[in-house]
Amino acid sequence: MSVPLTLLGLLEREPSHGYDLKRDYDAFFGRGKPLPFGQVYSTLSRLARDGKVVISDVAPGSGPDRKRYVITDVGATEVEQWLTQPVDPEPHLQTVLFAKVVLALMLDRPAAEYLDTQRSAHLHRMRELTEIKRAGSLVDALLADHGLYHLEADLRWIEMTGARLDALRKEVRP
Amino acid sequence: MSVVIEARNVEFSFGQTPALRGASVAVEAGEILAVMGPSGSGKSTLLHCLAGILVPDSGEILFDGARVHAMAETERSSLRRDRFGFVFQFGQLVPELTAVENVALPLLLSGVHRKRALPKASAWFSRLGLDGLEQRRSGELSGGQAQRVALARGLVAEPQVLFADEPTGALDSLTGEQVMDLLVGAAREQGTTVILVTHEPRIAAYADREVMVRDGRVNAPDRIAS
Ligand SMILES: Nc1ncnc2c1ncn2[C@@H]1O[C@H](COP(=O)(O)OP(=O)(O)OP(=O)(O)O)[C@@H](O)[C@H]1O
Ligand SMILES: [Mg+2]
């Protein structure tokens, strides 16, 4: 699960304080594994160092949460690229796919198109594995099958999610 | 590569129910194309329009340069008989005929003499692992065996295009994949173009390319560079 990109994505909705980012991260992506504050701030300062966010204003007083973070063009471009490019089709990427779908809906991006792109990347990989299966030994075939069944599971998830995007949009964009 | 069969902006309704709303797809000679998409999206209707079984309300079907949508029924039926092959979800073998007669049927229908048709049909039995089953009737075959017989029938006349609608839909995964393996092997060997309707990704993965049908339209994903 990509914490920096997810935080950047959340920042693209609106400039936010670290606390708000943590709250939204935990609500949508944490799933019982809250992000430690320390990790939020260390991630944000790395993002600032790399020019992907800037600090817009600092409230008086002390403590880390005085700062409000704003995404830069560099940061926005990175989010855009992450959302648009298909993830390398490998087993167990549901959580990454999930985060991309939810963020795409939050940001009013074409989530269905991203899912289509992902489906076609998955099918492309499945064709390669099927070729290996048809040409190779039984051991090759069984290894290829292992990959194929996992990719198929992802694809089923993609179908189900694609069919329920409207409902999901209502839940993540109240 | 050249396009052998193509639908251009095809619309088709069953009474008030629109099934295709401007579907376009082009298939290259020798290509194996998977047609995917949700139930009711129009996959079978598209296949039937391409194969000249249904005539579009508007739009064009082009096969080998010929305007299929404008043909008379007799012309379309000889096209289906002489140039196309078919495999469906449930083999749809003729129960009164033996397995080998079923396979020979397309040859017999296009006027090939029994003496030539039956040996040609028999040759498919060993090729598809069906040795010894030539004289069985369809009720005496397992689902997988019947489907392989149906596949042999679809390919025996060396059609230019094989239309397959969920050809593995009634089979378990392993048997389904064996049928696909044989289908792809045989189609490649004789250069047959295949249009394969399936909603199963593992079956679609035997094709060269997939298109998605949604709400009666076709969207082809951009090809991903290998
Ligand atoms: N003979 C028919 N009479 C009336 N409506 C039909 C007929 N055949 C199909 N339809 C309708 O046309 C639409 C497209 O059907 P089609 O059979 O092409 O879908 P499909 O994608 O092949 O679905 P499935 O995956 O379930 O086979 C559907 O709304 C269906 O209800
Ligand atoms: Mg159908």
From TrEMBL, chain A:
Taxonomic lineage from the root: Bacteria, Bacillati, Actinomycetota, Actinomycetes, Micromonosporales
Domain spans labelled Transcription regulator PadR N-terminal: 7-80
Domain of life: Bacteria
Endpoints of the signal sequence: none
Database matches in InterPro entries: Tscrpt_reg_PadR_N (IPR005149), WH-like_DNA-bd_sf (IPR036388), WH_DNA-bd_sf (IPR036390)
The protein, known as: PadR family transcriptional regulator
Pfam families: PadR
UniProtKB/TrEMBL annotation, chain B:
Pfam families in the cross-refs: ABC_tran
GO cellular component terms, A-Z: membrane protein complex; plasma membrane
GO terms, molecular function: ATP binding; ATP hydrolysis activity; transmembrane transporter activity
Domain ABC transporter: 5-224
Keyword entries, A-Z: ATP-binding, Nucleotide-binding, Transport
Claim: Nucleotide-binding is one of the keywords in the record: yes
SUPFAM superfamilies assigned to the protein according to its UniProt record, in alphabetical order: P-loop containing nucleoside triphosphate hydrolases (SSF52540)
Source domain of life: Bacteria
SMART domains (UniProt xref): AAA
Protein name: Macrolide ABC transporter ATP-binding protein
Native species: Micromonospora arida
